[in-house]
Amino acid sequence: LQILVTGATGQLGSKVVDELVRRVAMARVGACVRNPERADLLRKRGVEIRQGDFDDPASLGRAFAGVERLLIVSTGGENATRIRQHRNAVAQAERAGVRFIAYTSLTKADSNPMALGAVHRDTENAIQSTGIPYCVLPNNWYLENEAASIRAAAAGAPLVTAAGDGRIGWVTRDDLAMATAAVLAGSGHENTIYELSGPPRTYADLAGVIASVAGREAKVEQVDLDTYERMLAKIGLPAFAIELIVDAQRAMRRGALDMPSRDLERLLGQPVTPLKESVARLLAAGTGGGP
Ligand SMILES: NC(=O)c1ccc[n+]([C@@H]2O[C@H](COP(=O)([O-])OP(=O)(O)OC[C@H]3O[C@@H](n4cnc5c(N)ncnc54)[C@H](OP(=O)(O)O)[C@@H]3O)[C@@H](O)[C@H]2O)c1
């Protein structure tokens, strides 16, 4: 196989596979999935399915055999779990003789104060210490993470945030998938870090965009972190998710996702999809497309 994508039944990974089969011959693209029963769509498309669970190194070893270029899509869960899983993937890629590793990291991973940063720093280090040519692709905040808040704001609720005037380079999975596929199918991307970020905007900017799409006023409501945390608890989110979201808002306030970069635009070969267009698509899609 020329290119294998992990997390291929996930929201980002499946879009990367879609983009790849437009660029290279189908027979050269593979999908690494932990549950092949969920891979019917991919199989129907003619993509080779390889079973691999990040908690089962032997399965990853089999999945990565004969693969030239590998995309590791980060997994979910607690930091310690993800670190262990990602190390498994990198070690098995090395054993299998993979010649290029791309990895979906976090914006400014080396200095990002988010708790999640530890995972991405560890994985980037693990990849770099193999000596295998790599391309690190720090993904900024998915606009889709805000889907529920955007819909609510378009219906008249305030857009609540604790991020103050911190800027965020919101991106859509569609743009990320296109850029990631361009790296995997392209050449000359060895040993690079491409910050995949949209133009940095505040939540107030986002409210302005929602207002212009919805044709009604949309207000941002700034709250402190404790209030934000209490609000999340009220809607019944699990403690783990609350901690992650509050930590992200705290870091956003400090500019952790403020990343002016033209890397995404360069890889796309066209401007990043304008925020207004992405918000309009998200609203038109109704429910779904969330985090
Ligand atoms: N930048 C952001 O704003 C942002 C937001 C959310 C997440 N993320 C990160 O970006 C990644 C991709 O996002 P997404 O929206 O595509 O998430 P997603 O839909 O949850 O996809 C995650 C993928 O990882 C796979 N996976 C998880 N644990 C695994 C394991 N032990 N072995 C093999 N595969 C495993 C899942 O497999 P199944 O399909 O079998 O479940 C799924 O395909 C996430 O996993 C997370 O690390 C970033």
Q: Low-confidence runs (pLDDT<50, min 5 residues)?
A: none
What is the string of helix and strand elements?
EHEHEHEHEHEHEHEHEHHHH
> What is the helix content?
40-55%
Strand content: 5-15%
Secondary-structure-derived class: alpha/beta
Give the C-alpha Rg.
Answer: 19 Å
Number of helices: 12
Query: End-to-end distance, in Å?
Result: 30 Å
Spatial sequence of strands, sheet with the most strands = 3-2-1-4-5-6-8
- Ligands, ions, cofactors: NADP nicotinamide-adenine-dinucleotide phosphate
Mean pLDDT: 96
Shape annotation: globular
Q: Major sheet: size, sense and barrel closure? A: 7 strands, parallel
Number of strands: 9
Write the layout of secondary structure elements.
Layout: E1 3-6, H1 11-23, E2 29-33, H2 40-44, E3 48-51, H3 57-64, E4 69-72, H4 79-96, E5 100-106, H5 117-130, E6 134-139, H6 147-154, E7 159-161, H7 173-185, E8 192-193, H8 203-214, E9 220-222, H9 225-234, H10 239-253, H11 263-268, H12 275-284
Parallel strand pairs: 1-2, 1-4, 2-3, 4-5, 5-6, 6-8, 7-9
Helix pairs in contact: 1-7, 3-4, 4-5, 8-12, 9-10
The chain binds NADP nicotinamide-adenine-dinucleotide phosphate.
Looking at this protein, list some descriptive labels.
9 strands; seven-stranded parallel beta sheet; single chain; two-stranded parallel sheet
